[in-house]
Predict the structure.
Amino acid sequence: MLQSQNRANPAKAAAVAKTDPKIIDPKLLQTKPAPDYKVELSKPASAPTVSLPSVPTPSIPTPDLPKLPETKPDKPEFKKPDIKKTPDIDLPVKEYSLKKPAIIFIKGLDLFSSPSTSERGYAGVGKIADAVEGSKTFNWNEHEDIIEEIKKVKQDQPVILVGHSFGGDTALEVAEELDSLEHGFRKVDLLVMIDAVGADNDIVPQNVKNHLNVFGENNFLLNDGPHVARRHEMTSVKNILSPRDHTELDDDKEIQFEVVNLIKETLTKKA
């Protein structure tokens, strides 16, 4: 009966349904699907793709730019100080300080001497001196310089004097000066005189150990003949008479061999 009344008056029925909890609206009993709020964030919404027409890009030549210098970090520049090389100074050699032999060659006056390649046309024994290592050459008038050179060498070192023409006279004078108390009676291990021109050089002083005297047989005005020792037990003397002329004696191969061989023997025995 109630249902029939409700059908007859729907508005009234709705009001009764609201006030009467026992009466439930059938529309409320219908379940609605829950809305889906899940959104995919990983995939963006796809937008419609629009293809644009390809426009050719004009090629514009780019000018070559100048290269900039490489920049280096600012660092303090340290310049090396300019060191000026000091000139070589020949310091004086102390007396009797050199441990080497004194090998002295003394050339004669150009008037009486044959031309020698090593002496550039000057006197005497230059070619022989070139063959002996460590030798020094002096002029016949450099007496004091020769003495000073010998005084630089230690007293246990050999002293060798070789002179030609006027140089032979100077060699004997140097030997005589060394034979004195002032120079400690310094020994001369070898004295070679090639055609000395002095007239008073016949006697060899006692401080000379070995003496070689070469003189020419053709011109007796330019030589003083054979020599003798002042003390034969102290000095060994050898005289050679040569057929060569005065200006040819120092260039004679046999004489050159004799002189060089005696120098080698003297240095070997002393060593």
